[in-house]
Amino acid sequence: MPRPFDAYDMTPRPFSRPISVIPRTGPKRSYEIAWQDEHGHSRFDTVLAPTDPILESTIANVARGAVILTDTGNVPVEDLNPGDMIQTVEFGPLPVRWIGSYVVLPGSSDPQRAVTRLVRFSSDAFGLAKPSADLLLSESAHLLLKDAKCQPLYGLDQAYAPARAFEDGAYVFSITPAAPVTVFNLAFDRHATIVANGIEIESFHPGPLVEFMGDNQMRVASMRLFPHIASLQQFGERSTQRLTVYETSQLRQAG
Protein backbone atom coordinates (compact mmCIF):
# COMPACT_ATOMS: atom_id res chain seq x y z
CA MET A 1 0.00 0.00 0.00
CA PRO A 2 1.46 3.41 -0.94
CA ARG A 3 2.44 5.80 1.81
CA PRO A 4 0.68 9.17 2.16
CA PHE A 5 2.14 11.81 -0.15
CA ASP A 6 3.66 13.77 2.73
CA ALA A 7 5.54 10.75 4.07
CA TYR A 8 8.15 10.74 1.31
CA ASP A 9 11.56 12.30 1.22
CA MET A 10 11.21 15.35 -1.05
CA THR A 11 14.92 15.38 -2.03
CA PRO A 12 15.06 15.71 -5.83
CA ARG A 13 16.84 13.21 -8.06
CA PRO A 14 20.28 14.06 -9.42
CA PHE A 15 20.26 15.63 -12.88
CA SER A 16 22.58 15.15 -15.82
CA ARG A 17 23.06 18.79 -16.75
CA PRO A 18 22.61 22.31 -15.32
CA ILE A 19 19.15 23.77 -14.89
CA SER A 20 17.64 25.08 -18.13
CA VAL A 21 15.98 28.48 -17.91
CA ILE A 22 13.33 29.70 -20.33
CA PRO A 23 13.85 33.47 -20.67
CA ARG A 24 10.93 35.58 -19.49
CA THR A 25 10.30 38.12 -16.79
CA GLY A 26 7.93 37.30 -13.95
CA PRO A 27 7.53 34.25 -11.70
CA LYS A 28 8.77 30.86 -12.84
CA ARG A 29 8.08 27.31 -11.79
CA SER A 30 10.62 24.51 -11.58
CA TYR A 31 9.72 21.40 -13.58
CA GLU A 32 11.59 18.11 -13.37
CA ILE A 33 11.70 16.11 -16.57
CA ALA A 34 13.10 12.71 -17.51
CA TRP A 35 13.19 11.27 -21.02
CA GLN A 36 14.87 8.81 -23.33
CA ASP A 37 17.34 10.23 -25.82
CA GLU A 38 17.86 8.92 -29.36
CA HIS A 39 20.21 6.23 -28.02
CA GLY A 40 17.71 4.96 -25.46
CA HIS A 41 19.58 6.48 -22.52
CA SER A 42 17.70 8.08 -19.64
CA ARG A 43 18.24 11.81 -19.28
CA PHE A 44 17.18 14.11 -16.44
CA ASP A 45 16.86 17.86 -16.24
CA THR A 46 15.25 20.69 -14.30
CA VAL A 47 13.58 23.41 -16.37
CA LEU A 48 12.57 26.81 -15.03
CA ALA A 49 9.55 27.82 -17.07
CA PRO A 50 7.06 30.67 -16.72
CA THR A 51 4.30 30.14 -14.19
CA ASP A 52 1.51 29.39 -16.62
CA PRO A 53 -1.84 27.68 -15.93
CA ILE A 54 -1.79 25.94 -19.33
CA LEU A 55 1.60 24.33 -18.70
CA GLU A 56 0.80 23.45 -15.11
CA SER A 57 -2.59 21.87 -15.81
CA THR A 58 -1.16 19.89 -18.74
CA ILE A 59 1.74 18.40 -16.80
CA ALA A 60 -0.11 17.76 -13.53
CA ASN A 61 -1.89 14.43 -13.36
CA VAL A 62 -1.26 12.01 -10.49
CA ALA A 63 0.31 12.79 -7.12
CA ARG A 64 3.33 11.16 -5.55
CA GLY A 65 2.50 7.96 -3.70
CA ALA A 66 0.23 6.50 -6.38
CA VAL A 67 1.27 3.13 -7.77
CA ILE A 68 1.28 2.63 -11.54
CA LEU A 69 0.66 -0.76 -13.14
CA THR A 70 3.73 -1.93 -15.09
CA ASP A 71 4.61 -5.18 -16.86
CA THR A 72 6.22 -6.36 -13.60
CA GLY A 73 3.52 -5.15 -11.19
CA ASN A 74 2.71 -1.93 -9.36
CA VAL A 75 5.46 0.68 -9.04
CA PRO A 76 5.24 4.05 -7.24
CA VAL A 77 5.03 6.80 -9.82
CA GLU A 78 8.05 8.57 -8.31
CA ASP A 79 10.19 5.45 -8.89
CA LEU A 80 9.48 5.17 -12.62
CA ASN A 81 12.21 5.85 -15.17
CA PRO A 82 12.12 6.45 -18.92
CA GLY A 83 11.95 3.14 -20.77
CA ASP A 84 9.99 1.34 -18.06
CA MET A 85 7.18 -0.75 -19.54
CA ILE A 86 3.85 0.61 -18.39
CA GLN A 87 0.70 -1.44 -18.77
CA THR A 88 -1.82 0.51 -20.87
CA VAL A 89 -5.49 -0.30 -21.31
CA GLU A 90 -5.54 -0.03 -25.11
CA PHE A 91 -2.11 -1.22 -26.24
CA GLY A 92 -0.68 -3.44 -23.53
CA PRO A 93 2.84 -2.66 -22.24
CA LEU A 94 4.38 0.51 -23.69
CA PRO A 95 7.73 2.12 -22.80
CA VAL A 96 7.31 5.45 -21.06
CA ARG A 97 9.24 8.07 -23.07
CA TRP A 98 8.85 11.13 -20.86
CA ILE A 99 8.08 11.85 -17.20
CA GLY A 100 7.29 15.37 -16.04
CA SER A 101 6.66 16.62 -12.53
CA TYR A 102 6.58 19.67 -10.32
CA VAL A 103 5.98 20.40 -6.66
CA VAL A 104 2.73 22.02 -5.55
CA LEU A 105 3.59 24.47 -2.79
CA PRO A 106 0.38 25.57 -1.05
CA GLY A 107 -0.20 28.32 1.44
CA SER A 108 1.83 31.15 -0.09
CA SER A 109 1.04 34.49 -1.69
CA ASP A 110 3.80 33.87 -4.23
CA PRO A 111 2.12 33.17 -7.62
CA GLN A 112 4.46 30.21 -8.10
CA ARG A 113 3.22 28.83 -4.80
CA ALA A 114 -0.46 29.58 -5.22
CA VAL A 115 -2.75 27.12 -3.42
CA THR A 116 -3.61 24.28 -5.77
CA ARG A 117 -6.44 21.95 -5.00
CA LEU A 118 -6.20 18.23 -5.64
CA VAL A 119 -8.98 15.65 -5.89
CA ARG A 120 -8.85 12.78 -3.40
CA PHE A 121 -10.51 9.51 -4.36
CA SER A 122 -11.02 7.47 -1.22
CA SER A 123 -10.26 3.76 -1.38
CA ASP A 124 -13.17 1.72 -2.75
CA ALA A 125 -14.96 4.89 -3.92
CA PHE A 126 -16.07 3.11 -7.11
CA GLY A 127 -16.24 -0.40 -5.66
CA LEU A 128 -13.83 -2.94 -4.23
CA ALA A 129 -10.20 -1.80 -4.84
CA LYS A 130 -11.39 1.05 -7.09
CA PRO A 131 -9.11 2.66 -6.07
CA SER A 132 -7.09 0.16 -4.07
CA ALA A 133 -5.86 2.97 -1.79
CA ASP A 134 -6.60 6.68 -1.54
CA LEU A 135 -5.62 8.35 -4.79
CA LEU A 136 -4.70 12.00 -5.27
CA LEU A 137 -5.18 13.44 -8.74
CA SER A 138 -4.85 16.96 -10.06
CA GLU A 139 -8.05 18.78 -10.97
CA SER A 140 -6.94 18.59 -14.60
CA ALA A 141 -6.58 14.78 -14.54
CA HIS A 142 -9.07 12.67 -16.50
CA LEU A 143 -10.46 9.21 -15.75
CA LEU A 144 -11.55 6.73 -18.39
CA LEU A 145 -15.33 6.54 -18.22
CA LYS A 146 -17.03 3.47 -19.66
CA ASP A 147 -20.76 4.04 -19.52
CA ALA A 148 -23.50 2.77 -21.81
CA LYS A 149 -25.01 6.26 -21.78
CA CYS A 150 -21.97 7.72 -23.57
CA GLN A 151 -23.16 6.44 -26.93
CA PRO A 152 -26.73 7.82 -26.96
CA LEU A 153 -25.70 11.13 -25.36
CA TYR A 154 -22.40 11.91 -27.09
CA GLY A 155 -21.86 9.26 -29.77
CA LEU A 156 -18.88 7.77 -27.91
CA ASP A 157 -18.31 4.26 -26.59
CA GLN A 158 -16.11 5.68 -23.83
CA ALA A 159 -14.59 9.02 -22.86
CA TYR A 160 -12.18 10.73 -20.49
CA ALA A 161 -13.98 12.56 -17.70
CA PRO A 162 -12.44 15.29 -15.50
CA ALA A 163 -11.50 14.16 -12.00
CA ARG A 164 -13.36 17.05 -10.40
CA ALA A 165 -16.62 15.93 -12.06
CA PHE A 166 -16.77 12.96 -9.68
CA GLU A 167 -16.77 15.01 -6.47
CA ASP A 168 -19.55 13.91 -4.13
CA GLY A 169 -18.33 15.33 -0.82
CA ALA A 170 -18.07 11.87 0.74
CA TYR A 171 -15.78 9.55 -1.21
CA VAL A 172 -14.42 11.99 -3.79
CA PHE A 173 -13.60 15.54 -2.75
CA SER A 174 -11.21 18.41 -3.36
CA ILE A 175 -8.48 19.14 -0.85
CA THR A 176 -5.83 21.76 -0.34
CA PRO A 177 -2.69 19.82 0.63
CA ALA A 178 -1.15 21.07 3.84
CA ALA A 179 2.36 20.12 2.74
CA PRO A 180 4.26 20.15 -0.56
CA VAL A 181 3.23 17.38 -2.93
CA THR A 182 4.74 16.41 -6.27
CA VAL A 183 2.44 15.78 -9.23
CA PHE A 184 3.51 13.68 -12.22
CA ASN A 185 2.51 12.89 -15.77
CA LEU A 186 3.70 10.19 -18.17
CA ALA A 187 3.98 10.32 -21.96
CA PHE A 188 4.30 7.53 -24.51
CA ASP A 189 4.75 7.30 -28.26
CA ARG A 190 0.96 7.39 -28.44
CA HIS A 191 -1.89 8.62 -26.29
CA ALA A 192 -2.97 5.89 -23.87
CA THR A 193 -4.70 5.03 -20.61
CA ILE A 194 -2.67 3.95 -17.57
CA VAL A 195 -3.76 2.40 -14.28
CA ALA A 196 -3.07 4.19 -10.98
CA ASN A 197 -4.19 2.49 -7.76
CA GLY A 198 -6.57 0.43 -9.88
CA ILE A 199 -8.15 3.48 -11.56
CA GLU A 200 -7.80 4.02 -15.32
CA ILE A 201 -6.53 7.53 -16.07
CA GLU A 202 -5.36 9.43 -19.13
CA SER A 203 -1.67 9.66 -19.96
CA PHE A 204 -0.08 12.91 -21.11
CA HIS A 205 -1.37 14.61 -24.23
CA PRO A 206 -0.46 18.22 -25.08
CA GLY A 207 -4.05 19.17 -25.88
CA PRO A 208 -4.39 22.93 -25.20
CA LEU A 209 -0.64 23.48 -25.56
CA VAL A 210 -0.89 22.88 -29.32
CA GLU A 211 -3.38 25.72 -29.63
CA PHE A 212 -0.89 28.15 -28.07
CA MET A 213 2.10 27.22 -30.19
CA GLY A 214 1.77 30.54 -32.05
CA ASP A 215 2.94 32.20 -28.84
CA ASN A 216 6.75 32.26 -29.01
CA GLN A 217 7.22 31.95 -25.23
CA MET A 218 4.90 28.95 -25.10
CA ARG A 219 6.71 27.36 -28.04
CA VAL A 220 10.10 27.78 -26.35
CA ALA A 221 8.72 26.40 -23.09
CA SER A 222 7.25 23.38 -24.83
CA MET A 223 10.45 22.51 -26.63
CA ARG A 224 12.52 22.78 -23.42
CA LEU A 225 10.06 20.65 -21.50
CA PHE A 226 9.83 17.97 -24.20
CA PRO A 227 13.40 17.55 -25.54
CA HIS A 228 12.67 14.08 -26.93
CA ILE A 229 10.42 15.40 -29.73
CA ALA A 230 10.67 17.98 -32.51
CA SER A 231 7.08 19.24 -32.19
CA LEU A 232 4.01 18.63 -30.07
CA GLN A 233 2.24 17.20 -33.11
CA GLN A 234 4.37 14.08 -32.65
CA PHE A 235 2.10 13.09 -29.77
CA GLY A 236 -0.59 12.41 -32.38
CA GLU A 237 -4.34 12.42 -31.92
CA ARG A 238 -6.12 11.61 -28.70
CA SER A 239 -7.06 7.94 -28.50
CA THR A 240 -10.23 8.87 -26.60
CA GLN A 241 -12.14 12.12 -26.50
CA ARG A 242 -12.65 14.21 -23.36
CA LEU A 243 -15.90 15.30 -21.76
CA THR A 244 -16.35 18.53 -19.84
CA VAL A 245 -17.41 18.66 -16.19
CA TYR A 246 -20.93 19.60 -17.32
CA GLU A 247 -21.14 16.76 -19.86
CA THR A 248 -19.93 14.26 -17.29
CA SER A 249 -22.49 15.49 -14.76
CA GLN A 250 -25.28 15.20 -17.35
CA LEU A 251 -24.21 11.65 -18.20
CA ARG A 252 -24.06 10.54 -14.57
CA GLN A 253 -27.47 12.04 -13.87
CA ALA A 254 -29.14 10.49 -16.94
CA GLY A 255 -31.56 7.72 -16.17
Walkthrough of the structure:
There is one protein chain. By secondary structure, the chain is α+β, with helices and mostly antiparallel strands. Helices cover 14% and strands 31% of the residues. The protein has helices at 53-59, 150-154, 208-211, 216-225, 245-253, and strands at 20-21, 28-36, 42-50, 62-63, 67-70, 73-76, 85-88, 92-95, 98-104, 118-121, 135-138, 142-145, 159-162, 172-175, 181-187, 193-196, 199-202. The protein has a 6-stranded mixed sheet with strand order 1-3-2-9-15-4, covered by helices on one side. A 3-stranded antiparallel sheet has the order 11-10-14, with no helix packed on it. The protein has a two-stranded antiparallel sheet with strand order 5-6. Strand 16 and strand 17 (199-202) form a beta hairpin. The longest helix has 10 residues, at 216-225. Residues 1-18 have low confidence and may be disordered.
